[in-house]
TrEMBL record:
Signal peptide extent: none
CDD domains: AmyAc_MTSase
GO biological process: alpha-glucan catabolic process; trehalose biosynthetic process
Matching InterPro entries: GH, GH13_cat_dom, Trehalose_TreY
Family annotation (SUPFAM superfamilies): (Trans)glycosidases
Descriptive protein name: Malto-oligosyltrehalose synthase
Residue ranges of every copy of the Glycosyl hydrolase family 13 catalytic domain listed in the record: 7-497
C-alpha cells in the first residue's frame, strides 16, 4: 500500500466532509480503489467550495470535521486496507481580511513583522509607497468607497481591537496610529494606553515579543472601553471618524494613510500590486516557501500527519508557481523520508508517494532531479483524447471555422495563443511585468557597459520573450541553468529577435546573457531578475492557454482541455504508444487522469466530440444550417452581434457533447436543469475567455443577449431540439465506444489511475463548478452490488443494451480495478509493448501487451469507430465490420490460455495473428489476462 494502485479524487466542502466520506468507503473499497485522494484539508475561507483558498496551514479545516473527523476517516480506511493522499497548496494563501493570521500580522506590523518574509512583497515599490502593501480588495475606487461610508472605524470584541471594517472584512491599525489616537484623547487613561503601545513597539529586536506586548496592550484597551467610563470615550473616538461627515471622512482618511497597507480598488491589482500573486488573482498571495523557516512552518501539519500515519502521499498544487520547484520537491522528499521511521506499525512504511500538478508541453518531460513519482496526469489525458481524434477531419473543421469567422479567425492555435499571451501579460500582469523589468534595470545600472539600456527597452524585450516562451517556465537556480533550460530559452530568444526592432537587439542580448549566460553561481541581483522572469512566464501561460485561448478557438472543444495542445489536433497510434513507453520508463508511478476538478469538459464529453472529427464535413454543414436558422435570434449590439459566431459555434458543440445520453425527449423535465448548466458554462466561457468583458468586468448587455438567444434556441417544440436529439442519438453509441476505450486505457496503461468523483458513470460535466456538483451515490452503490460476481454473457448484453444509465462503464472499471488489486506487479511494473496490426481497419485499433514475470495482459481496443457502427443503437461493433483486421500476438507467449478480465470470456490463443472480431465478441474491448506460457530468456530480461 506504499504506492497507490488506484486513487479516487474527492472534492470536500462543509456539506460533503470527512463524515460524508466515511459513509462511502465500503463502496469505493468494493469498487477496487486503494487510496482516497482528497482536495485540500487545511483551514480555508468559511464555506469554501473547494479548499484552495487556504488561510491557515496549521489546522485541519473544522468545516470538514477537523482533526477528529480526519482521524475517524483514516480508521475507516485502514479497516478496508486503504490509504489516504491529500492535495496541498504550498505556494499561495488566501488574503484580504482577518481570516489569515499571517497576512493580518503583515498588515499590522509591516515589514518588521516576523511574517513579512513569508510573502513575496516588494516593500520598496515606487507605485505603492515606501513600506506599504497594496491591498486591492475594494469593489470600487478608494475615494468612492470612503465617500459612501463603506470604510469605517469599528471596535471588535472580545479582542479589544480598533479596526477598519469593510464589507465583512477587518483590517488592523498599526501601533503608531493607535498611539496618536489615544494621545489625542487627552485623558490620563488615553495617555496610559498610548504608553502601553509605545512600550510594545520599543521591542525592536524581537517581533514576537513586540506582538505579544501589543496583545497585552489590546487587553488594556478592552478593559477600559468595556468599562462604564470607557464606553463614552470609545463612542466619541468612533464618532470622530464617522465617514458620514466631511470632517469624519478626513480623519478616517488620515488614519488609513498611516497604515502599512493601502486599500485600493481591485482594478488596481493588475497594474500596481507589489506582491506576487498566484494565477493573477488579487486575493491569492504567493508564499516564499523556498525559505527554510516558511517551508517548515507551512508544512508542519503535513509532516505531523505523515509521521503519525494518517496520510500516505501528497499531491502538490501548481508546482510552477514555486520559486524553486526542484529544491522544494527534493526538500519535501527528504523530510518525509526522514519521518517514515516514526510511522506506526499499522501505516505503510514504503517510499512516500509524491506527485505534482505540472503541465508538460509537447516534448517536455518531468525533471528527474525533482525526485517526484510523476505528474497528476494531464499529459496522459491529452494523449488519450488525441488518439481518439481523426486527423483527416482537420481540413474541414479548420475551413469551416475560417468561413464562419472570416478575418477574425487565427490561422492556427499558436497564433491565437500568442495574441492571448500578449493581452494577458500587458493587461493582467502589468505589475508583475514591471517588477521583472525593474529587477533587470537594476542589474543594467550596476555595470557601465549596460547602464544606458533603458527601462522601457528592457520591458519591450521581456514582453516578446514571455509572449513566445514555448513552455510554462525554466528552472534555473543559484547554480545556473541546465542545458534543457538553455534550449528552451533559445527558442524564445529567436522568436523575440524576429519581432523586436533592431534597436532593441542589444537589450535582448544583454537580457539573454543575464538569464542563461555562462558564469559562476548567480549573484543576488541576477538571481532576483531570473526569479521574477521565471515566475512571470508560468502564470501568463496558464491564463493565456487555459482561459483565453481555449475559449477562442473552436475547431473541437475536446482538444481545448487543460494540459492539451489544441495546435496538435490528433495523436497517431505510434505517438500514443511512445508516450506510454516514456511514462513506463521515467514515471511508472505517476498519476493518470481523465477528469479533474479543473477540467474544461468531462471525459465522456470529449469522447463524444471526438466522433465529430470522423464526420467533419457533415458537422460543418450542420453548423452552417444552424447559424442560418438562428440568425433572427441574435441581438445587434454596438460592438456587433450577440452571441458572436465563435460563441455560437462553441455553444452547439457544448450542447452536443454534454447532452445526457438518457435525455431523449423534448418534454423531459431534465432539459430545464441541463439548460441551466449550459447557461452557467456559457457565462463562464465568455468571461474567462474575455471575448466580451474587459478584464474581470463582464459585459452585461452581451450576457443578457446570449441568455435570450439560448432561451429562444432551446424553446420547447423548436426544430433545433429535435435535430440535436437526433444527432446525439446517432453518434452516442460510437462516443460510448470511445468512452470505454479511454476507460480501459486509463486502468491498463503504465501509471496510477485516478478516478474523479462520480465518473464511474458517464461523465457529462462541464467546467467548474459544474464538475463539482453533488454525486448521486445510491444508484452507483446499487449498480456495483449487482455487478459483483457477474460473469455471464447475458449480463453483459443487458448492460450493453442499457448503456445509457452508466452501469456498463462502472462494471468495466470494477473489473479492471480488481485486476489491479490482484495483479499489482503486472500493472505497476510490467513492461509495455505495442502490438502490430494488419487489415483494412488496422488504423482503427489500439493494441499493446503488458508483461511482468510469467504474467501478461493483452489489451485490444477500437478507435475512430464511427464508420464501423452504421445504424448502431448501442456500443457494439458487428464482427463482420472488422473484416480482415488482425492483431499479432508475440510468438513467445503462445500458446496461451487467457481470460478477458472484463467480459469473462475464456480464450486459447494459438495463432500468431488473431482476428480482432474474435477478440471483441461480447464487448467492444478485450483485456486478456494469461500466465501459463514459457518466455525465452530474452523476454524475461525485457520483462
Amino acid at each position: 500500500m506504499a504506492a497507490p494502485l488506484a486513487t479516487l479524487r474527492l472534492q470536500l466542502h462543509r456539506d460533503f466532509n470527512f463524515a460524508s466520506v466515511c459513509g462511502l468507503i465500503d463502496y469505493y473499497a468494493d469498487l477496487g480503489i486503494s487510496h482516497l485522494y482528497l482536495s485540500p484539508i487545511t483551514t480555508a475561507m468559511p464555506a469554501s467550495p473547494d479548499g484552495y483558498d487556504v488561510v491557515d496551514t496549521s489546522r485541519v479545516n473544522p468545516e470538514l470535521g477537523g482533526e477528529t473527523g480526519l482521524r475517524r476517516l483514516v480508521r475507516c480506511l485502514r479497516q478496508r486496507e486503504m490509504g489516504l493522499v491529500i492535495d496541498i497548496v504550498p505556494n499561495y494563501m488566501y488574503v484580504g481580511g482577518a481570516e489569515n493570521q499571517w497576512w493580518y500580522e503583515v498588515l499590522e506590523f509591516g515589514r518588521t513583522s516576523d511574517r513579512a518574509a513569508f510573502f513575496d512583497i516588494d516593500w520598496d515599490s515606487p507605485l505603492t509607497g515606501q513600506g506599504k502593501v497594496l491591498a486591492p480588495f475594494l469593489n470600487a475606487s478608494y475615494g468612492e468607497t470612503l465617500a459612501n461610508g463603506e470604510l469605517r472605524l469599528v471596535y471588535e470584541r472580545p479582542a479589544g481591537r480598533l479596526q477598519i471594517a469593510y464589507s465583512g472584512h477587518r483590517y488592523p491599525l498599526n501601533a503608531a496610529s493607535l498611539i496618536r489616537l489615544f494621545d489625542a484623547i487627552g485623558t490620563e487613561v488615553g495617555r496610559s494606553l498610548a504608553q502601553a503601545f509605545a512600550a510594545a513597539m520599543a521591542n525592536v529586536d524581537c517581533a514576537a515579543v513586540r506582538a505579544q506586548a501589543c496583545e497585552i496592550a489590546y487587553g488594556r484597551c478592552r478593559d477600559h472601553f468595556e468599562g462604564e467610563g470607557g464606553r463614552t470615550t470609545l463612542e466619541g473616538l468612533l464618532a470622530q471618524h464617522d465617514p458620514s461627515s466631511a470632517t469624519g471622512r478626513g480623519r478616517l482618511h488620515q488614519l488609513l494613510e498611516e497604515q502599512h497597507y493601502r486599500l485600493a480598488s481591485w482594478r488596481l491589482a493588475n497594474d500596481e500590486i507589489n506582491w506576487r500573486r498566484c494565477f493573477g488573482a488579487f486575493h491569492l498571495a504567493a508564499l516564499s516557501v523556498e525559505r527554510d523557516d516558511v517551508f517548515e512552518c507551512s508544512h508542519a501539519l503535513y509532516f505531523r500527519l505523515y509521521a503519525e500515519g494518517l496520510i500516505d502521499g501528497l499531491r502538490i498544487e501548481f508546482i510552477d508557481g514555486l520559486t524553486d520547484p526542484a529544491g522544494y520537491c527534493r526538500k519535501l522528499r527528504r523530510r518525509l523520508s526522514e519521518l517514515t521511521i516514526l510511522r506506526p506499525a499499522g501505516a505503510p512504511n514504503g517510499r512516500p508517494w509524491l506527485v505534482a500538478e505540472k503541465i508538460l508541453t509537447d516534448g517536455e518531460r518531468l525533471r528527474e532531479d525533482w525526485q517526484l513519482d510523476g505528474t497528476t496526469g494531464y499529459d496522459f489525458m491529452n494523449e488519450v483524447a488525441g488518439v481518439l481524434h481523426d486527423p483527416k477531419g482537420v481540413p474541414a473543421l479548420r475551413n469551416g471555422w475560417h468561413q464562419w469567422l472570416g478575418g477574425l479567425a487565427q490561422k492556427d492555435f499558436a497564433g491565437q495563443a500568442w495574441l492571448a499571451r500578449r493581452k494577458v501579460l500587458t493587461e493582467n500582469f502589468a505589475a508583475d511585468l514591471d517588477a521583472a523589468t525593474r529587477a533587470l534595470h537594476a542589474l543594467a545600472c550596476l555595470d557601465h557597459r549596460s547602464r544606458d539600456i533603458s527601462f522601457h527597452a528592457l520591458r519591450r524585450v521581456l514582453i516578446e520573450l514571455v509572449v513566445y516562451f514555448p513552455q510554462y517556465r525554466i528552472y534555473a537556480d543559484r547554480r545556473g541553468h541546465s542545458p534543457l533550460d538553455a534550449a528552451v530559452f533559445a527558442q524564445a530568444l529567436a522568436a523575440a529577435r524576429s519581432t523586436l526592432r533592431q534597436v532593441d537587439h542589444a537589450a535582448l542580448d544583454q537580457v539573454a546573457g543575464w538569464m542563461v549566460g555562462a558564469g559562476p553561481a548567480l549573484a543576488a541581483g541576477r538571481m532576483l531578475a531570473l526569479r521574477r522572469f521565471q515566475l512571470l512566464t508560468s502564470p501568463v501561460s496558464a491564463a493565456a492557454f487555459e482561459d483565453r485561448a481555449s475559449y477562442h478557438l473552436g475547431l473541437l472543444l475536446s482538444r481545448n482541455e487543460v494540459g492539451s495542445d489544441p495546435g496538435r489536433f490528433a495523436y497517431s497510434v505510434a505517438d500514443f504508444h511512445a508516450g506510454n513507453a516514456k511514462r513506463r520508463q521515467h514515471t511508472p508511478l505517476g498519476m493518470l487522469t481523465l477528469a479533474t476538478h479543473d477540467h474544461k469538459c468531462g471525459a465522456d464529453v470529449r469522447a463524444r466530440l471526438a466522433v465529430l472529427s470522423e464526420m467533419a464535413e457533415e458537422w460543418v454543414a450542420q453548423i452552417d444550417r444552424w447559424l442560418g436558422a438562428h440568425a433572427p435570434f441574435r441581438s445587434c449590439l454596438a460592438e456587433g452581434e450577440a452571441p458572436t459566431i465563435a460563441d455560437e459555434v462553441m455553444f452547439y458543440q457544448t450542447l452536443l457533447g454534454a447532452w445526457p445520453a438518457d435525455l431523449e425527449r423534448e418534454g423531459d423535465p431534465a432539459l430545464i436543469e441541463f439548460a441551466g448548466r449550459i447557461g452557467a458554462w456559457q457565462q463562464k466561457a465568455e468571461h474567462e475567455g474575455k471575448l466580451q468583458g474587459m478584464g474581470y468586468v463582464p459585459d452585461r448587455a452581451y450576457d443578457e443577449a446570449v441568455t435570450k438567444f439560448r432561451h429562444a434556441v432551446l424553446a420547447s417544440g423548436s426544430r433545433f431540439l429535435g435535430e440535436i436529439i437526433a444527432m446525439v442519438r446517432r453518434i452516442a453509441p460510437a462516443a460510448a465506444v470511445n468512452g470505454l476505450t479511454q476507460t480501459v486505457l486509463h486502468y491498463t496503461a503504465p501509471g496510477v489511475p485516478d478516478l474523479y468523483q462520480g465518473t464511474e458513470f458517464w461523465d457529462w460535466s462541464l467546467v467548474g463548478p459544474d464538475s463539482r456538483r453533488p454525486i448521486d451515490y445510491p444508484p452507483r452503490i446499487a449498480a456495483l452490488a449487482r455487478v459483483q460476481g457477474k460473469q455471464d454473457a447475458a449480463y453483459w448484453t443487458e448492460l450493453r443494451r442499457n448503456w445509457r444509465d452508466g452501469r456498463l462503464k462502472q462494471a468495466v472499471i470494477h473489473r479492471l480495478l480488481q485486476l489491479r488489486r490482484n495483479r499489482p506487479a503486472l500493472l505497476l511494473q510490467g513492461n509495455y509493448q505495442p502490438l502490430l496490426l494488419r487489415g483494412i481497419h488496422a488504423e482503427r485499433v489500439l493494441a499493446f501487451l503488458r508483461q511482468a514475470g510469467d504474467e501478461c495482459l493483452l489489451v485490444i481496443l477500437p478507435r475512430l469507430p464511427l464508420p464501423l457502427m452504421p445504424q448502431a443503437t448501442e456500443p457494439a461493433i458487428a464482427p463482420s465490420a472488422w473484416a480482415d483486421t488482425a492483431v499479432q500476438i508475440p510468438a513467445g507467449i503462445l500458446p496461451l490460455n487467457c481470460t478477458d478480465v472484463v467480459s469473462g470470456l475464456a480464450l486459447r490463443l494459438e495463432k500468431e495473428w488473431l482476428n480482432v472480431a474474435d477478440l471483441l465478441e461480447r464487448l467492444p474491448l478485450a483485456v486478456l489476462y494469461g500466465c501459463d506460457y514459457r518466455m525465452s530468456s530474452e523476454q524475461h530480461c525485457a520483462a
